[in-house]
Amino acid sequence: MKQLLTFLLTATPVLVSVAQTTVPTPEIQIKAAVLAAPADKRAGAAVYGYTGDGTLTLLRKGTNELICLGDDPKQKGFNASCYHKDLEPFMARGRELRKAGKSGQEIYDTREQEAKTGKLKMPKNPTTLFSFSAEDTDFDKATGEVKNGYVRSVVYIPFATAESTGLPLKPDGPGLPWIMDPGKHNAHIMINPPKQAPATK
Question: What's this model's pTM, rounded to 2 decimal places?
Answer without folding.
Answer: 0.85
